[in-house]
Amino acid sequence: RSSLSPLRKINTVINSYAIARQKEIETLQKNAEFRREFIADISHELKTPIFATQGYIHTLLDGAIDDKQVRMKFLKRAAKSLDSLDVLVKDLLTLNQMESGVIKFNFTDFDLKDLIQEVIDQLEHKASKRDVVIKLEFDPEKSHITHADRQKIYRVCQNLIFNAVKYNHDGGEVKVTLKSQKNTIQVDIKDNGQGIPPEDLKRIFERFYRVEKSRSKERGGTGLGLAIVKHILEGHKSKISVSSTVGKGSIFSFSLPLEKEKKPIEKTPVFEN
Ligand code: ADP
After folding, report:
1. To the nearest whole percent, how much of the chain has pLDDT over 70?
2. Given this model, what pLDDT does residue 212 score?
3. Distance in Å from the first CA to the final CA of the chain
4. What is the model's pTM?
5. Is residue 273 pLDDT above 70, yes or no?
6. Which among 271, 236, 238 is positioned nearest to 107, based on CA atoms?
7. Is the Cβ atom of 196 under 6 angstroms away from ligand 1?
């Protein structure tokens, strides 16, 4: 039998209802704040390429179009600004789909070392422009078959290896190491570039966070790459970790499950008389 009087019981119910309502209001306020900040960030990021394209086109219309050399230079720059706008919008859509949980993961078995080799082949051209060498190390005796979303893991490796090239110095080195352990494959992406200061390290996975805004933009960065990496790995119940020393370089690491090689089913011998 409860010792509380009916009035106190009603009071307790009202109090817990008020607390629940208060929490709901706080969540709604936080969501509204997040949305406001997100829109402010996006508008700010979109302004740069739009403003640049506008500038080139207006200069052409004001007469620069008559000079063939200037015309080509300005058209190329306008095209480059539009390309970066395209990348930014695509990245924003991907991130938005991930954050709202609508993106689907398509898990299959594949060889992680082959995927990384494909990414390296794709980035080789950009790396060689700056004399950056990309190396891949793995134990050829071991299996590197994983179970994951191949397309999304391609994106993760592409973002991380491209960053290791972008934020490296000319003539630098990027080393990608694959380590097959008992149940996991660990991927380490190590560069000997500029490194990341400790106070920035915990913030680089936030959308639009850049250590050096000007340098990142000049290198074609949207500031969304690592936020996308983090979300994709979360969808694989994995995490990205980073350690870095300013002036020496950084190592980004993540793990994926090692898919056990399936043993062939032994056939029962059939004896015939
Ligand atoms: P961005 O598109 O600007 O490269 P990311 O989200 O990929 O954006 O990275 C966020 C920031 O983290 C970058 O702007 C850069 O300042 C820093 N960063 C990422 N990778 C590296 C790296 N390998 N070395 C040094 N800084 C890095």
Report:
1. 92
2. 79
3. 80
4. 0.82
5. no
6. 236
7. yes
Give CA 176 to chain center in angstroms.
17
Q: Give the model confidence (pLDDT) of 8-40 as tens digits.
A: 888 898 999 999 999 999 988 888 888 888 888
Burial label for 136, CB within 10 Å (0-12, 13-18, 19+), is: middle
Identify which of 157, 207, 216 to mutate to test ligand 1's pocket (most ligand atoms within 8 A of the CB): 216
Question: ∠152-155-158 over CA atoms, to 5°?
Answer: 155
For 178, the 3-state DSSP assignment is strand
Judging by DSSP bridges, how do beta strands 145-149 and 107-111 pair with one another? antiparallel
Residue 195 and residue 185: Cα distance in Å, rounded? 25
Nearest residue to 84 (alpha-carbon basis) of 207, 224, 251:
224
pLDDT at 101: 83
- Closest ligand 1 atom to Cα of 211: 16
Question: Does residue 204 surpass a pLDDT of 60?
Answer: yes
Tell me the CA–centroid distance for residue 225 and ligand 1, in Å.
Answer: 8
The ligand 1 atom at the shortest distance from the C-alpha of residue 220 is 2
The number of residues in the chain equals 273
